[in-house]
Design brief:
Blueprint: H1 5-8, H2 13-16, H3 21-46, H4 49-65, H5 67-72, H6 78-101, H7 108-113, H8 122-141, H9 144-154, H10 160-167, H11 174-196
């Protein structure tokens, strides 16, 4: 995958504008270490290289805004934390775009790539895609907080303590919020299933 020169040879303006020199250097080092991960994560989700560049820039702002939390994260977990920020911003971009256009959560090229193999059972394929569509539609009905906590736990595979730091809640509350979010997701899925029946 192509990596844009604009990200390769520059530092985002948001970092350059930071007043504290130590913080600016800390964030610049994070950016240099993880810019490839950030870009490829965004590009994988949004597909468009220019949008992915914008998301990297927006992610730098989110990193600056959450600098104390990131400093508190163990060095070995920082990449996962930063990638989680990029994923959240990318997915929020997709959700917002799709709400505005009222199209499917899946990009057109993904839909084409999901055509069933001739050897596979078409009925199983259709059932699976209906289930996926219901889950995606149900996720869109959830609050941003519910979507975020489910994504961080099940897609980003973050530990409860990392989720707690990101959401600014107590670590022992994460399980409670996850249970509530799963229940709300299940309720939305059941409602959508009834509507389609």
């Amino acid at each position: 995958m192509f990596f844009p020169k604009s990200l390769l040879f520059s530092v985002p303006i948001a970092i350059l504008r930071m007043e504290d020199e130590d913080d600016r250097q800390f964030v610049a080092d994070l950016y240099q270490n993880f810019k490839l991960n950030m870009y490829y994560t965004a590009r994988k989700i949004v597909k468009d290289p220019h949008t992915a560049e914008d998301i990297v820039q927006e992610s730098c702002i989110a990193i600056i805004n959450n600098l104390e939390k990131i400093k508190a994260v163990e060095i070995c977990r920082r990449r996962a934390y930063i990638v989680s920020i990029v994923k959240n911003i990318s997915i929020n971009y997709i959700v917002k775009r799709d709400r505005q256009s009222k199209y499917s959560f899946i990009a057109d090229d993904e839909i084409l790539s999901q055509q069933p193999d001739l050897d596979s059972n078409i009925e199983d394929y259709l059932i699976r895609n209906c289930e996926i569509a219901i889950i995606k539609s149900a996720l869109l009905k959830l609050s941003d907080k519910d979507r975020t906590i489910l994504r961080m736990k099940y897609f980003d595979d973050l530990r409860d303590v990392d989720i707690a730091n990101y959401l600014n809640i107590k670590a022992n509350s994460v399980r409670y919020y996850l249970t509530l979010s799963r229940r709300r997701l299940y309720a939305c899925m059941m409602e959508l299933d009834r509507e389609q029946s």
